[in-house]
Write a structure and sequence with these properties.
With 152 residues, the protein is an alpha+beta fold. Helix content is 41%, strand content 12%. It binds FE2/S2 (inorganic) cluster (FES) (2 copies). The site of one FE2/S2 (inorganic) cluster has 12 residues, from loops.
Length: 152
């Protein structure tokens, strides 16, 4: 399969129906994207495909051929939104165990890309699919607001 991940063209020897998550982690070697539930329920595996957040655990790799896949590694390198979120994450010391946080950052990046000044309700609604077992939700919300202010 021919993929473009973080602006890098890659040719991977994988089955077309392999979940994108495995291609990203096991074949492209990008382990920032995490496996949580494997059933589109937790958001740990969130990446962007053509700028839209998707659950890579249920996305067949064939469906992203010819599209731009962005992982947390690429977003933190190239996206000013993700970089502002990272700064805010550090400011509020958001992560606890950290496992869910790359997915949280990818969803938060998608949120601020489409809504630069989200309300609490907007944040809660958009981020509802990203589960954090350490319950860092309050800090995530504060950090998104801080990043939005910094980017304004
Ligand atoms: S691992 Fe994909 S949504 Fe949980
Ligand atoms: S920081 Fe532990 S699951 Fe979110």
């Amino acid at each position: 399969m021919k993929l473009t991940i973080n602006n890098q063209p890659l040719e991977l020897d994988v089955e077309p129906d392999m979940p994108l998550l495995w291609a990203i982690r096991d074949h492209a070697g990008l382990t920032g994207t995490k496996f949580g539930c494997g059933m589109a329920q937790c958001g740990a595996c969130t990446v962007h495909v053509d700028g839209q957040p998707v659950r890579s655990c249920i996305t067949p790799v064939a469906s992203v051929e010819g599209k731009q896949v962005t992982t947390i590694e690429g977003a933190t390198e190239a996206s000013t939104i993700t970089q502002a979120l990272q700064e805010a994450w550090v400011h509020y010391n958001v992560p606890q165990c950290g496992y869910c946080q790359s997915g949280q950052l990818m969803s938060a990046t998608a949120l601020l890309s489409s809504n630069p000044a989200p309300s609490d309700t907007d944040i809660d609604s958009f981020m509802a699919g990203n589960i954090c077992r350490c319950a860092t939700y309050q800090r995530i919300r504060a950090a998104i607001k801080r990043a939005a202010t910094q980017l304004a």
